[in-house]
Amino acid sequence: MEGKTSNEVFNREKAEATVKELRQSFRAGKTKTYEWRAAQLEGIARLIKEKESEITQALRSDLAKPEMESYLHEISLAKSACLFALKNLKKWMKPEKVPAAITTFPSSAQIVSEPLGVVLVISAWNYPFLLSIDPVIGAIVAGNAVVLKPSEIAPATSELFAKILPEYVDSSCIKVVEGGVPETTALLEQKWDKIFYTGNGKVGRIVMAAAAKNLTPVSLELGGKSPVLVDSDVNLKVAVKRIAVGKWGCNNGQACIAPDYIITTKSFAPQLVEALKVTLERFYGKNPLESADLSRIVNLNHFKHLTDMLDEENVSDKIVCGGQTDEKQLKIAPTLLLDVPHDSLIMKNEIFGPLLPIVTVDKLEDSFEIINSKSKPLAAYIFTKNKKLEQEFLSNVSAGGILVNDVALHLANLYLPFGGVGESGIGAYHGKFSFDAFSHKKAVLSRGFAGEAGARYPPYTPEKQWILKGLINGSIVALFLALFKRF
Amino acid sequence: MALITGKKCGDEEMGALGLETEVAEARTTFDSGKTKGFEWRKSQLEALLRLLQEKEEDMLKVLKEDLGKHRVEAYRDEVGALTKSVDNALLNLKKWMAPEKVSLPLVAVPTVAEIVPEPLGVVLVMSSWNFPIGLSLEPMIGAIAAGNAAILKPSELAPATSEFLAVEVPKYLDCEAIKVIQGGPQVAEQLLDLKWDKIFFTGSAQVGRIVMTAAAKHLTPVTLELGGKCPAIFDSLKSSRDQRMAVGRVAGAKWGSCLGQACIGIDYLLVTDEYAPTLIELLKGVIKEFFSNSEHLARIVNKHHFQRLCNLLQDESVAASLVHGGSVNAEELFIEPTILLNPPLDKEIMTEEIFGPLLPIITLKKIEDSIEFLRARPKPLVIYAFTHDEKFKQRIVDDTSSGCVMFNDTLIQYLCDTIPFGGVGQSGFGQYHGKFSFDNFSNRKPVGRRNFLIEFSFRYPPWNEKKLQLLRHIYRFDYIGFVLCFLGLKR
């Protein structure tokens, strides 16, 4: 165990020693076998099963996360990631035979997946269990040794990892390092074969710059302002429920793929607002600050970040629902705002909280300009039955992922890559994409000495050039000549 | 003083500010949606093909001028290879652009999903001097096929080629979206300060670090195609015919491609003490057969690299290990094929990438020792091995790491569109060629669709135990349990 549970500070020397130990374990070949990888995954699956209540409790302590959300969004997703990996591990580890080109005839080719080596996973505070264990599962399944640095902003979960993970996995190859900025900096100074970071763009830049010193590839799972376009032709009751559960049912809006703002037509907005109000009351009652089904804001810092947004001039008067806050309990009620100024804080920065601005336009096609004036988000949503509008949305909006007529669900689908683009990140994972994210795809090409193209070699002649031309362009005649013509 | 001499369609000279304007124009063009359509991409690739065909002689000429490449070598390694790649891209473009349907389990949501590739936006390609046309246009093929606007900065160390590209590319391709900007380190620095949607860099690790650090400021994804010391393991081959063929391939890869200045060229050989003398004799024979006329060999790119290579031989212990060649011609920037036997491993010739026609042969007690030798060193772009021993081959694949492994031949992995081309560790990250190029410059965007027909009430708060139970069943794909629970027949 390292970090704050021991008396020593986790500094550069300790970071170096940790990486050295992992490198030795990796070089010894421990992590490469199917048996080892499967054993680790089985260990993690057991951990999730046996420690479900401890995990739920840690999440409640860190975020006041309702038990349902802990189950739905963290525990069950972690479990399915684990089981999916176990089920497919053998298949993923197999080399992939590919056809070799006529230019290289005769030859055989395959793509072999190999582990990158020793990798670092830095996770976030909002889904502190899932966002730690999910990438670690990917690292393990690809055969790497891994250090996990859980977020210090979710201390109960971080401590839980440090305590129980070593009981279920091979701690000579999988380690947990707790800590904040100094410990993370010490880790980032080391040479890793891959760094996987989940968090915000500011720290993402620091991670990538540190990685650049060692030419270490990175995956950055960041965030952005995920827009929701709502058309008037939808089943409003269902749409609104999906939006609501995607926003406030996901850690009270503190989720990278939670709807950040809504765009709808001026004429439809009143209906939308009414429907949202009704749904919010149904979900959370008349006193949402007292509802047990809402997470609290993670800490005072983020609480202030949100209240600053609400208190801004020309914004506070746009609240049409909610707005109640409780600093002592760090609770903010689901809040709707209508037509805040475009240059307000709440429309410039990622909200990451229970505030939902609604922007109105004359016609929905005008929304693309608004969306594209901001950086590319992790997710973009559209509710519509109009196929043409849907297609325009798809073509015009670039995002990590797009969902039509629902919110957030794509993250649960292990067949879809989950990741950002532009400011929302680099790389993707989930399912086989996790395996790929932590692997090197090594091309292996094998030839014999049967066919020899003398035309390849000097002294060069025009005739050789002619044959090479044909050979490179896949001409059978040239191939024939290349193989049999003697020079 | 920055040297910027790109030519716009209207043949105007660019100034320092012109650089930003050019990039801004590319962005405006991309934002207009022009580069996204199939027709545009197809037209650009076809134009590229015409460029390769119509300007073939000019290309061979500038490659001779910059690097002394014989026209056949230049065709084989650059022009021809590009032609194949463009043909391949044109053939497959529609397929690559098509959304990929994703299979989903029944209860999985969303109900229908696909992965849609979309362009990243405006990309920067920085290429290297040793295959100045090939390494410029090969990534560009990927960028264009994927629907991006692209800026190419060719290496200033191959000036004739850089000028050729700056003049000819705008004549064939859409100069509002595809631009060539010439210049040296200062121009590169200015370009790296701007915000790109992707940077594709081919070159040295040292500059690679600079590129990635600059990219980090904007969270720009990068591909780094770097180098390393690519070894060739030479096992004993039974027949003399095989041996002769293998040695020919080694010689071709060491000296026949840009005089050893290739990232996938052979850097050094690993062979048993016992076999080394035979190998050296065979190599000498092949050198005589292929390279007697130095016109069939390329030249060292410039004085700086020429001097660098000469310096490698200066060290006494290195010079003492010379067994063939060693003569140099400063005026011609030519160094003849040179073989060294067991130069000390701690000298620069064995610690740094050689990138030239000096071939160290390192001998080992037994050939299997080559695996430990390689594991102790940084991961190269490719490991070559000449052997018939299937077990040994498997050990090489399992126990070493490199961008690629090539058995019993050299260099041709570059021509194979079905395998990814790229490094690992110090030799870089990111891959291209064939569809890998297309993917490299794309955002693979998952798109899920739901309808309003099926609705699960237990998705929503307020929460209760029953909803939790239903969800447990769903998540385990336990349909029967789910139905029973739903109907109240199961707790």
UniProtKB/TrEMBL annotation, chain A:
<keyword id="KW-0520">NAD</keyword>
<dbReference type="InterPro" id="IPR016161">
    <property type="entry name" value="Ald_DH/histidinol_DH"/>
</dbReference>
<feature type="domain" description="Aldehyde dehydrogenase">
    <location>
        <begin position="11"/>
        <end position="444"/>
    </location>
</feature>
<comment type="similarity">
    <text>Belongs to the aldehyde dehydrogenase family.</text>
</comment>
<dbReference type="GO" id="GO:0005737">
    <property type="term" value="C:cytoplasm"/>
</dbReference>
<dbReference type="GO" id="GO:0004029">
    <property type="term" value="F:aldehyde dehydrogenase (NAD+) activity"/>
</dbReference>
<feature type="active site">
    <location>
        <position position="256"/>
    </location>
</feature>
<dbReference type="GO" id="GO:0009737">
    <property type="term" value="P:response to abscisic acid"/>
</dbReference>
<keyword id="KW-0560">Oxidoreductase</keyword>
<dbReference type="InterPro" id="IPR012394">
    <property type="entry name" value="Aldehyde_DH_NAD(P)"/>
</dbReference>
<dbReference type="InterPro" id="IPR016163">
    <property type="entry name" value="Ald_DH_C"/>
</dbReference>
<dbReference type="InterPro" id="IPR016162">
    <property type="entry name" value="Ald_DH_N"/>
</dbReference>
<protein>
    <recommendedName>
        <fullName>Aldehyde dehydrogenase</fullName>
    </recommendedName>
</protein>
<dbReference type="InterPro" id="IPR015590">
    <property type="entry name" value="Aldehyde_DH_dom"/>
</dbReference>
<dbReference type="InterPro" id="IPR029510">
    <property type="entry name" value="Ald_DH_CS_GLU"/>
</dbReference>
<dbReference type="GO" id="GO:0006081">
    <property type="term" value="P:aldehyde metabolic process"/>
</dbReference>
<feature type="active site">
    <location>
        <position position="221"/>
    </location>
</feature>
<dbReference type="Pfam" id="PF00171">
    <property type="entry name" value="Aldedh"/>
</dbReference>
From TrEMBL, chain B:
<dbReference type="GO" id="GO:0006081">
    <property type="term" value="P:aldehyde metabolic process"/>
</dbReference>
<dbReference type="InterPro" id="IPR012394">
    <property type="entry name" value="Aldehyde_DH_NAD(P)"/>
</dbReference>
<dbReference type="GO" id="GO:0009737">
    <property type="term" value="P:response to abscisic acid"/>
</dbReference>
<keyword id="KW-0520">NAD</keyword>
<feature type="active site">
    <location>
        <position position="225"/>
    </location>
</feature>
<protein>
    <recommendedName>
        <fullName>Aldehyde dehydrogenase</fullName>
    </recommendedName>
</protein>
<dbReference type="Pfam" id="PF00171">
    <property type="entry name" value="Aldedh"/>
</dbReference>
<feature type="domain" description="Aldehyde dehydrogenase">
    <location>
        <begin position="20"/>
        <end position="446"/>
    </location>
</feature>
<dbReference type="GO" id="GO:0004029">
    <property type="term" value="F:aldehyde dehydrogenase (NAD+) activity"/>
</dbReference>
<dbReference type="InterPro" id="IPR016161">
    <property type="entry name" value="Ald_DH/histidinol_DH"/>
</dbReference>
<comment type="similarity">
    <text>Belongs to the aldehyde dehydrogenase family.</text>
</comment>
<feature type="active site">
    <location>
        <position position="263"/>
    </location>
</feature>
<dbReference type="GO" id="GO:0005737">
    <property type="term" value="C:cytoplasm"/>
</dbReference>
<dbReference type="InterPro" id="IPR015590">
    <property type="entry name" value="Aldehyde_DH_dom"/>
</dbReference>
<keyword id="KW-0560">Oxidoreductase</keyword>
<dbReference type="InterPro" id="IPR016162">
    <property type="entry name" value="Ald_DH_N"/>
</dbReference>
<dbReference type="InterPro" id="IPR016163">
    <property type="entry name" value="Ald_DH_C"/>
</dbReference>
